[in-house]
Specification:
It is a single chain. This protein has about 325 residues and is α+β, with helices and mostly antiparallel strands. It folds into 2 domains: about 5-195, Fructose-1,6-Bisphosphatase, Chain A, domain 1 (2-Layer Sandwich); about 205-330, 3-Layer(aba) Sandwich (D-Maltodextrin-Binding Protein, domain 2), CATH 3.40.190.80. The protein is built from 8 helices and 17 strands. It has an 8-stranded mixed β-sheet with strand order 4-3-5-6-7-8-9-10, with helices on both faces. The longest helix has 23 residues, at about 20-45. It is globular and about 65 Å long. The structure holds 6-O-phosphono-alpha-D-fructofuranose (P6P). The site of 6-O-phosphono-alpha-D-fructofuranose has 10 residues, from loops.
Length: about 325
């Protein structure tokens, strides 16, 4: 494949599909540059005195890691001066972050989980940044949380960076999914995979099986059939992976198929799941659907869900569409 840079790809996309206005191209380049900086900070590990917990909690009541806060700051500082954004929202911040008055306001809104998979940071397992881009409502003067509460179908771009053996940026602007690998010597993102497609079928699933006794019947039935393999109704054997880093699990699925599940369960009956809709499930669902996969909350297409609060959680079944369809049908029975 001809190696082109992220910049060249975005310019060619704009020329071919007229789908990336200059402001959106600038936004994507700025976020990609911030992910380079985060990759550098993550890569230092203990040498950069960035491991371990900070002495603060985030809006979810989770102890923040130093790198959670560092990554959040990197994304805020990279994006607030460019004039392309009206506001930002982050897993690490209770309320939205309007662009400071000293900078011009743009027409896009950026949401992100600055460093997903935090429990893996200190043990050197892959982690990542997830981001989602929405358009600010017409005529919006002062951004409020309400302006962010748009269904996932309204995203104009979504992506993630996975900080693993390679640092890879995965991006969609609505015309398919492309991957860029960070060339550390040149400091540039180079396209390494184009138009990714997720196989409709798979023999690999991802779920935290330690929660099995808490699952509701549709999930128990579905997973038990996978575990039965050739001896059961699926008549084939399945493999299991659970990295406890959604970005890494979804990246594997994007490359070789699979289904990732984080269901609601009986541990907290009124909690719809662990993952957040606005800056985890929605961007991942946009990417996966653009790659021919599917994403539901067990009943509804994730991208169709009308959000009610910025940090709301949602159950997630995402990946190879025939498996997502099957487990969703089990919920309907
Ligand atoms: P558990 C990471 O904290 C995360 O939000 C996702 O990236 C990951 O898939 C999930 O939580 C892991 O959850 O309950 O297995 O630790």
């Amino acid at each position: 494949m001809k190696r082109i840079s992220l910049t060249q790809h975005l310019i060619e996309e704009q020329r071919l599909n007229n789908s990336i206005p200059a402001e959106l191209r600038l936004l994507i380049e700025v976020v990609a540059r911030a992910c380079k900086t985060i990759s550098h900070a993550v890569g230092k590990g203990a040498l950069g005195d960035v491991l371990g917990a900070a002495d603060t909690e985030n809006v979810q009541g989770e102890i923040q890691k130093k790198l959670d806060i560092i990554s959040n700051e990197i994304l805020l500082q990279a994006n607030e001066w460019g004039g392309h954004l009206a506001a930002m929202a982050s897993e690490e911040m209770e309320t939205i972050h309007p662009i400071p008055n000293r900078y011009p306001m743009g027409e896009y809104m950026l949401l992100f989980d600055p460093l997903d998979g935090s429990s893996n940071i200190d043990v050197n397992v892959s982690i990542g940044t997830i981001f989602s881009v929405l358009k600010a409502p017409e005529g919006m003067a002062t951004p409020t949380e309400q302006d962010f509460l748009q269904p996932g179908t309204r995203q104009v771009a979504a992506g993630y960076a996975v900080y693993g053996p390679q640092t890879v940026l995965v991006l969609t602007t609505g015309n398919g999914v492309n991957c860029f690998t960070l060339d550390r010597e040149m400091g540039s993102w180079v396209m390494t995979q184009r138009a990714l497609q997720i196989p409709a079928d798979t023999a690999e699933y991802a779920i935290n099986a330690s929660n099995a006794r808490h699952w509701y019947p549709p999930v128990t039935r579905y997973v038990k059939e996978l575990e039965a393999g050739k001896t059961g109704p699926r008549d084939k054997n399945f493999n299991m992976r659970w990295i406890a880093s959604m970005v890494a699990d979804v990246h594997r699925i994007l490359n070789r198929g699979g289904i990732f599940m984080y269901p609601a369960d009986a541990r907290e009956p009124d909690k719809p799941g662990k993952l957040r809709l606005m800056y985890e499930a929605n961007p991942m669902a946009f990417i996966v659907e653009q790659a021919g996969g599917a994403a539901t909350d067990g009943k509804n297409r994730i991208l169709d869900i009308q959000p009610h609060t910025l940090h709301q959680r949602v159950a997630v079944f995402i990946g190879s569409r025939n498996e997502v369809q099957r487990v969703t049908e089990y919920h309907a029975e």
